[in-house]
Amino acid sequence: MTAEKAPGSGNSIGLRRSLGVADAVVVGLSSMLGAGIFAALAPAARAAGAGLLVGLAVAGLLAYCNATSSARLAALYPASGGTYVYGRQRLGEFWGYLAGWGFVVGKTASCAAMALTVGWYAWPAHAHLIAVTAVVALTVVNYLGVRKSMWVSRIIVTAVLVVLVGVVAAVFGTHTGDFAALTDFAGVSGGGVLQSAGLLFFAFAGYARIATLGEEVRDPAHTIPRAIGIALAITVAVYAAVAVAVLIALGPGRLAATARPLVEAARVTGLSWLLPFVAGGAVLAALGSLLSLMLGVSRTSLAMARDGHLPRRLDAVHPRFEVPHRAELAVGAVAAVLAATVDLRGAIGFSSFAVLVYYAVANASAFTLGPDEGAPPKVVPVCGLLGCVVVAVALPLTSTIAGAGVLALGAALFWVRSRRR
């Protein structure tokens, strides 16, 4: 099959439409069923205790709004770039650029965070070295073609689901637990619940990866909305089951105090043979997230390069492997440098702020859709936009300042480029 010419790509080679619903669902699951579920439960418990279950519901609702807006837009504009494309089409060039800039810088930081998670679980004494190695290895996988990436993603998603189901089954099967912990809301505040929602939202922020592959899926108007809905529903169900099991096994206080809640929950079951499998599951989950993150960032970089907002040399598709190989190499190089130098918590906080800006633009874009364009009910993008703003404000001050500063830098670069034009 010859590659299609991408819209707005000049003489560039387009990307092959080879992904079906199952492939797109795997992309979303490998993005959402990642390191977040292994890392976010403890800080969420510190913020809200058992109220983290309410925070999980809030995060899931916000993810639903964002996913619905993204799906409707992706069906209308099935090109690589996600909200970068939607914002340009619906709100103007600047807002699309700001979304694309936020996505590229924020998700590149997420790549570093996922790589560091691999390092800390696999070999804590050499976490940064393992992180860099993971980035390099998955850059090679992505370079060899998106179909090979789907094959790797299927293996990772299957293994992570087996581990999570195993932990839940072990808790309910061998540990009586404290079911009262699920309703112990003493001392829980609305602010704490909101903070836990912000922390847990980081674990959901992967469904838009499906939309960024819009140029590579078959029948995008049908495939993208269906895949996003299926992937999100599965993720919410799995996260809820895991959160309930861990709360029952550990209680809010013990959960808040541990750095590895799923490992600790497996430990209290008395089944010590589970521990290496849980740790291995965390490594695989982080690798799955890293793989899909690098896919999404490279495709958005390709779209921005086509329009001159990133170096034009990134606007290239490999004639054999049919992937944006220069963009993938650039993303891999930057992520490897960050993985070797940055702090995990700082990378996550910065990424959260940037991705919330990205989704805010997506919801604002969806609000402008008309009935003949597949517009969602207006309450969906309104709630999504307001939710993104509220959760962004609830982030730590350092993350907000750093994120706002980098976005301001991007806006300044846009202004300078516009003046030169």
Automatic annotation (TrEMBL):
Keyword terms, alphabetized: Cell membrane, Membrane, Transmembrane, Transmembrane helix
Protein family (similarity comment): Belongs to the amino acid-polyamine-organocation (APC) superfamily.
GO MF annotation list: transmembrane transporter activity
Natural source organism: Mycobacterium asiaticum
GO annotation, cellular component aspect: plasma membrane
Phylogenetic classification of the source organism: Bacteria, Bacillati, Actinomycetota, Actinomycetes, Mycobacteriales
Protein name from the UniProt record: Transporter
Segments traversing the membrane: 21-41, 47-65, 94-121, 127-144, 151-173, 185-207, 228-251, 271-297, 347-369, 389-416
Purpose of the protein: Probable amino-acid or metabolite transport protein.
Membrane topology listed for this record: Multi-pass membrane protein
InterPro entries registered for this protein in UniProt: AA/rel_permease1, APC_superfamily
Domain of life from the UniProt record: Bacteria
Gene3D superfamilies in alphabetical order: Amino acid/polyamine transporter I
